[in-house]
Design brief:
Blueprint: H1 3-6, H2 11-19, H3 38-46, E1 56-60, H4 65-78, E2 83-86, E3 98-100, E4 103-104, H5 107-127, H6 135-149, E5 154-158, E6 175-178, H7 186-189, H8 193-200, E7 210-212, H9 217-230, E8 234-236, E9 241-249, E10 252-259, E11 262-268, H10 273-287, H11 295-308, E12 316-319, E13 323-326, H12 332-342, E14 350-354, H13 362-369, E15 375-378, H14 389-399, E16 405-407, H15 411-421, E17 427-431, H16 434-447
Parallel strand pairs: 1-5, 1-6, 2-5, 6-7, 7-8, 13-17, 14-15, 14-17, 15-16
Antiparallel strand pairs: 2-3, 3-4, 9-10, 10-11, 12-13
Length: 462
């Protein structure tokens, strides 16, 4: 056992080790050339290629892939399958990214996995510096190692960034899914929908079934062309499968999903019409997974699975009197979905705590959220990835001069102060990034000032 391995004996030590790697996720202006599958491929070879033989549902998209992934996990679990789920980023703990059978992998098991991959990473970094594994390469390797050894029936992998050159693309999927495409991560993925679509369509595999959301024409054309090139049967939302919202309130919504002859009526404890779309995508993925249940068994599994789904940090109502809503909206469409829900909540006034990550469409986010709020506090959830609060404040003042805005760089202080300023009939909304959503859940829980509503420990990424 190497000296490096002996030092990793706990989840905290494993986290410290991983943080010392090149963390491409947090590099604002990392050149896309830095993203490369060769490091993860070489690391997998050192580990005996644990990804071989896994049946994977692979999810890419600008928004919705995390929620869709958790829904897929729930449906497969309800169908009697053992499932491993890898999501990113995390809300509160990096260990949330790894789940087996709907539960976070225990810290000791994670530490053990990191111990075993660390010598290979260290040797590769020293012997092949041009192919040094990154932070996300290492996390992907941990997931593949854990899932391979757990002898699972199915795995769900969420892309970290893009698709074509994302570390998760070392796998060969059983089903590929692209949930949505918007202008995001433009420094790395390109500044047009077609360019971004091309990167995300990189997860499609020859002959493997693919599922696609209702994308804009420019993006859809790219994905459809890639599917034709690879001979991948492509099912599209709104054409081959669809959804209908039957009823909704502040506890969730009743939905009807159709996919060919398949019809499922279900209840989900999730707010926003976008979650009904994600449910349709999840069912379409499961319906096309090789060897999965079909017919009445699938309908039963879907009804039970959707009823059990909890989506932390996704328009999550965690308190009443005052209303407290935590969300990780970081694209224009997700901000529009949040605004739709805000309109349904009766309140006297609304305070918004906001942090926006670099590379996101800040103008589009503000366009939807500002008409719904009475005051904004801008903060910085992540020191490297987040835009300068002052920069965001200037944009807010230009877009909505009548809305009071203040800058509180420390997100913990910003959230606590706003919560203390809320009356019983007010609404506190925390949004803009998954980093801020995670901080908000932790701060509001620690203060004990907010009663949680239907919060599950089943946490994942964005």
């Amino acid at each position: 056992m190497s000296e490096r391995t002996r030092r990793i004996g706990s989840e905290a030590a494993a986290s410290e080790y991983l943080a010392g790697l090149i963390n491409v996720e947090k590099e604002r202006n990392a050149p896309y050339s830095r993203f490369d599958l060769e490091p993860i491929r070489r690391l997998m070879a050192r580990l005996g290629n644990p990804q071989a033989g896994l049946s994977v549902i692979h999810l890419a998209g600008s928004k919705g892939k995390g929620s869709t992934g958790l829904m897929v996990e729930a449906l497969l679990g309800a169908a009697g399958e053992r499932v491993g789920t890898f999501t990113s980023p995390h809300l509160e703990r990096w260990g949330e990214r790894f789940r087996i059978d709907g539960r976070e992998v225990a810290g000791e098991a994670l530490a053990d996995a990191v111990e075993r991959i660390a010598p290979h990473i260290d040797e590769q970094r020293e012997a092949e510096p041009l192919h040094a594994p990154s932070f996300f390469d290492a996390l992907t390797a941990v997931a593949l190692l854990l899932f391979s050894e757990a002898k699972l029936d199915r795995c769900v992998f969420e892309v970290g960034l893009g698709g074509r050159l994302d570390s998760t693309n070392v796998i060969t999927s059983a089903v590929s899914c692209i949930t949505s495409i918007e202008l995001e991560h433009t420094h790395q993925l390109g500044n047009t929908l077609s360019a971004i679509a091309s990167e995300k369509a990189g997860i499609l595999k020859a002959g493997v079934p693919a599922v696609m959301g209702d994308l804009r024409a420019e993006a859809a054309e790219v994905v459809e062309a890639k599917a034709r090139e690879l001979g991948s049967p492509l099912a599209r939302l709104g054409r081959d499968f669809d959804f209908e919202i039957l009823d909704r309130d502040l506890e969730g919504q009743s939905i009807r999903l159709t996919d060919g002859a398949l019809r499922v009526d279900a209840r989900i404890a999730a707010l926003g019409s976008h979650q009904a779309r994600n449910a349709a995508l999840a069912l379409a993925c499961v319906a096309r997974a090789p060897g999965c249940v079909r017919g009445g068994s699938l309908i039963d599994a879907a009804e039970r699975g959707f009823a059990a789904v909890r989506l932390p940090g996704r328009i999550e109502l965690i308190g009443r009197a005052p209303w407290v809503l935590v969300d990780c909206a970081h694209t224009e469409s997700s901000a529009a979905a949040l605004a739709e829900v805000l309109q349904q909540i009766p309140r006297r006034r609304t305070q918004l705590i906001l942090s926006i990550s670099a590379g996101k469409d800040a103008e589009g986010i503000l366009r939807h959220l500002l008409p719904q709020v009475d005051a904004v506090t801008v903060t910085r959830a992540e020191p490297v990835r987040s835009l300068s609060p002052s920069e965001v404040a200037v944009a807010i003042r230009a877009a909505a001069p009548s809305v009071p805005v203040q800058v509180v760089p420390n997100p913990h202080l910003a959230i606590r102060a706003a919560r203390e300023d809320c009356g019983a009939d007010d609404l506190l909304c925390v949004s803009g990034s998954i980093y801020l959503a995670g901080i908000a859940r932790r701060v509001l829980s620690d203060t004990g000032s907010t009663a949680r509503v239907a919060v599950s420990r089943r946490s994942g990424g964005g």
